[in-house]
Design goal:
Elements: H1 5-24, H2 30-51
Helix pairs in contact: 1-2
Amino acid sequence: MLWSPKEEQIILELKDKIQEEYFNNPDEYSREIILSNISSILKYAQRFYKRQFVDHPQIKGK
């Protein structure tokens, strides 16, 4: 899968949030926060993957 720089940045930021939560803020909410960020990564990955198959309208006159 080929991601745009913006898409890659989104995934990397979520990964960083997971790492920060895991290593720096362990408490009763950590597991839920980490799982939520993993879920977000998976949803973004699905969006980016499906985007590859969207038919873009042709520019008329070309």
